[in-house]
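TL;DR need structure tokens for one chain.
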Amino acid sequence: MSFAAYKMMHWPTGITNCGSGFITHCRADYVPQIPLIQTDEVESEWPAKQGIGPVPNLIVTAANVLEIYVVRVHEEGSKESKNSGETKRGILMDGVSSSSLELVCHYRLHGNVESMAILSKGGSDSSRRRDSIILSFQDAKISVLEFDDSIHGLRTSSMHCFEGPEWLHLKRGRESFARGPVVKVDPQGRCGSVLVYGLQMIVLKAAQGGSGLVGDEDTSGSGAAVSARIESSYVINLRDLDMKHVKDFIFVHGYIEPVMVILHERELTWAGRVSWKHHTCMISALSISTTLKQHPLIWSAMNLPHDAYKLLAVPSPIGGVLVVGANTIHYHSQSASCGLALNNYAVSADSSQELPRSSFIVELDAANANWLLNDVALLSTKTGELLLLTLVYDGRVVQRLDLSKSNPSVLTSDITTIGNSLFFLGSRLGDSLLVQFSCGSGASMPSSGLKEEFGDIDGDNPSAKRLRRSSSDALQDMVSGEELSLYGSAPNNTESAQKTFSFAVRDSLVNIGPLKDFSYGLRMNADASATGISKQSNYELVCCSGHGKNGALCVLRQSIRPEMITEVELPGCKGIWTVYHKSSRGHNADSSKMATYDDEYHAYLIISLEARTMVLETADLLSEVTESVDYYVQGRTVAAGNLFGRRRVVQVFERGARILDGSFMTQDLSFGAQNSESSSGSENSTVLSVSIADPYVLLRMNDGSIRLLVGDPSTCTVSVQTPSTIESLKKPISACTLYHDKGPEPWLRKTSTDAWLSTGVGESIDGADGGTLDQGDIYCVVCYESGDLEIFDVPNFNCVFTVDKILSGRTHLIDTYAWEPSKDSQTNINKSSEEVTGQGRKENIQNMKVVELAMQRWSGHHSRPFLFGILTDGTILCYHAYLYEGPEGSSKIEDSVSAQGSASVSNASASRLRNLRFVRIPLDAYTREEMSNEAPCQRITIFKNISGHQGFFLSGSRPSWFMVFRERLRVHPQLCDGSIVAFTVLHNVNCNHGLIYVTSQGILKICHLPSISTYDNHWPVQKVPLKATPHQVTYFAEKNLYPLIVSVPVLKPLNQVLSSLIDQEVGHQTDNQNLSSVELHRTYSVEEFEIRIMEPERSGGPWQTRATIPMQSSENALTVRVVTLFNTTTKENDTLLAVGTAYVQGEDVAARGRVLLFSVGRNADNPQNLVAEVYSKELKGAISAVASLQGHLLIASGPKIILHKWTGTELNGIAFYDAPPLYVVSLNIVKNFILLGDVHKSIYFLSWKEQGAQLNLLAKDFGSLDCFATEFLIDGSTLSLMVSDDQKNVQIFYYAPKMSESWKGQKLLSRAEFHVGAHVTKFLRLQMLSTSSGAAAGSDKTNRFALLFGTLDGSIGCIAPLDELTFRRLQSLQKKLVDAVAHVAGLNPRSFHQFRSNGKAHRPGPDSIVDCELLGHYEMLPLEEQLEIANQIGTTRSQILSNLNDLELGTSFL
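>> reply
TL;DR here they are.
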């Protein structure tokens, strides 16, 4: 393996940062009749009494993934009900029925987000302003992003980089830094600031609104929203201000200029000195003047405890700052201070005054916090407890702090408050939660209540908007006297501690990280006879993820495997459809029918074969009724469906159509030459494809024309029409579809320019059918052979939207006639240049066309339609519609339209969908397939409800499920049956919301979708909660069991813990005399380990624990492996479970460990004797890794590696190797070669010789490297050694004793190195699948293995070997793409994947890994650019795509 490809297969899910802000909309976009008081800060919205108020966006980052969500709050009842009356906030929980997150945009950045802040323009003037996102990246990169409506995505508004030679002085000679840049912003949005390199503070000055400095031309039109921007930046060196160790900083509220408070430590202390030197921290407040670039110190506070680590800015009107430490919380402002001790370890600075204590004991190290109200903060502890911290205050003086316990929750990494009644708990260790809260309080309102009620009092007073909350006297002027008496003049402070909060979890985001270990096992419903690629879907990945009470086993499967109910042989099938029928369906039954609309059972299953059609009844049993129905059964059916609100069935065959009422025909149509004006050859025209949208049926004929069957709901009959507008164009049509814009408010109507008139096209139709139809408009989407796309309204066929060349797959589709002329000329230039470029290599692009179209809007109040097109080369274009109201001056559009001259266009120009745009969505897991030359069958089948999921199914040789969650497409392949020719939904008694599909082998299967998995993830996942931390898992194949190490924290009395720290052999007496009796009865939390043996449930239910093996006290299980040992007495192989442990007893006790061997019993019925211990032995040193080597057991015990043989009763050492490894983290074995990775000393490569019984060191890496995981990489006959380290890199080494630079073979040579950007904790070697491309069969090696890896961010990827030709081609493509693709946030992929040595000496290795993350952008480029780039690197587009496709196919392991 000289060359490899790095490929992400599952993106990170562990959320590290989250924030909220008005990114995609502004505060004024909400219902304007509530004059909400505008806030000055992002962190705490002021609780507005009526309803929810404006809800900002949620922005989350997980490693290098950035996602923006909009929070949809669904209120009970009508919109009026939320504005009426004095709704108390206690009922608000019930007033809101649910809230959910909906994805706006998703980006994968070329860099991990270190920290994030939301820059917002606070205050009332900001009603039209939007917020921006500031991201900081490793070393010192800062990007500011804002949302651009016209492209429905983020664009970079400024970038600030403080790296490179000219900024080298900022590092002051240091190479490695404990943390990346930290960014915080001023609550009023006047500036932001970033702490880089530990001591350099970069101040980012925000552009003042209306100053004319930042692009006024961008505001284009009066109503457009402007986002907050950064204007300039400068650096403050904190060293000059005599600060040495900065721990945290924050901007505080309530000052005229931005004021930054910095928490820093003057001189460090350490554990041995804490009793003398414990109050080493202090805070300093600097007033930042961005214009003068001055920062005078205005106040400071000394003597803060050494473990203080976090600052929280208290919202106005109180102001000030909270300092959070492990054992104390302090409040400081310019005028007052107070504190709270949380446990017995808290000491006051001078022993004279004692801190007030909280009512319960808690430790607050590693806590996260945010403000719920202006005086209540929510803290989340390291155990996942939620605490409420209330500030008891009078005026602006805080008198004391009150801490109270609340609900336990997930272990968080970040908390953000969204609006005034929601917060989001982001988590790396568990699923992240969106929670709604509501606050009730005591009888008379506390002092904080005054401001809360204020929204009610001035409900109709417009000047309330302009009121700044800081001026309390203005408040009294405005509020009339009798209302002030509500509160009494002297508020009672004791009440404010009695606020009660109630919480409700509203939504959650799945997280599978951190993946500590995984194993690869068979699924329960595996198919033993499968071969090739479908065999891969027999496997699943069982991962240890999470921590503590969020610990879980995640069962991941890359492909979906439906649960089969029944199957039948059915050769020669071309298509299947299920239809509904209700016999008694009159107009009067509508109200009762609508309730069960989704639950209605199907009546008939129609199966189209080569030359005939079968009809089956889908009652309790599937019974064939072909003979007794009036369906057309003499030939094949093209399509079937329901019309007129499911009262009739329409069946379309090649030369005609039938309308049936149940099984009786009511109308028969044939498509002969009924149009005399159409071309004479139309007698033999047959139907190629059909699209049904009640009450219309659209037919595409084989001569490139279309027909429309128009239904009349009153008589339930249809008539054939040929749309005259399309007929007159005489352009052959390659694909077409009908789109039904359903729902209470049709979405596309909003994009028309006369939307406010609401003269929808569909109104006339809606009136006629007596309400049986979902009201909504119907459109016809047509794609011509030339590659142009048009949308017409039905039945008038006025063109409402036109796009040229949809084939090229541009990132945005805009109505051609809504373009500004300048852009128009631009595209013409492109086109002409495209014609010119080398005619010689026009690789069969001429005959590329769209062969299938589909447009669908799934249910959901705010859902937007998707548009899908399949091209001849198998590319799927997927577009998502969005609304963009362009600049107001639209006169030039009318001019250009009339210049076109065609009357029909200019008439319709008023009702064009001018504000409709489409943005292209990248599809991850989808693998293309070439279209066959025969008549293409329809591959897209849309489903509304299969086990509660919605989306569409793509049939063909690589079938996939496309599911829609939160307005986001999730693509899950289905490999288990190979190629699938037909698919449909089935809902009847025996198959509840299930599916039917027919494989190309001619087997019809009726299935369920397994409901146990969560499909709203990159891969379908099933989480098995353990309520404990899992550490390592292995797979026992014979019994299909998963032994895993778990640990649970247990509280033990202190004297027990202390006695375990004594070395028993030496026999010291415990010296407890310096501990008081009170201290001895305290408890201390200790992790207790056990081995659990889990078995997956056959039905797919919860997993069962079959047996547990407890460890001794203070014994940690370090490794568990299934080993095959050769029994020297019986001469047979024994398969045993080997466990390596270590006693953790502090630094005074010599390290010991045990090796345990267990046999797993035969009978699974009696779980007591499932596991039997066959051997145990205590050794010196921790047993950190075990492996079986040719029937012997290899044990890494401390700094030794010992090889044992197994006699059946005991292990006897036969060889050893005294390496200087300090602690072996991983052992891998291939044949007689051993690879071991050490925690500090990099990797060693050894071999075992039977005849001399010796372990020999072949070579090692002489560098120092902190290994995380190692594995062998096999490519044909070459063996390479892979290692990942603590700096998130991977390296590939090889052993070449003949090379001179290997020092006669002592040194391992570097073959490749790469920065992954995540801690890789485990490699798994899997055989790659041979790709079917016959051309490369010679070069394709048979035993080629790839390495699947899991990371601590919850991502999964693989590293696969490439042959040199492919590698060179992809590498030159990668170099082109670095410049050709616009990278989000301006990050460079090459610098991201550069090896990071963190200051250690490192000799750079060869660059022989290609990054498939970047190569994936190639397909997203417009077709012309793809051809151009392929030409520049001297290859063809089809060659590149087939290489990428082979890689995708070769690594579809699950």
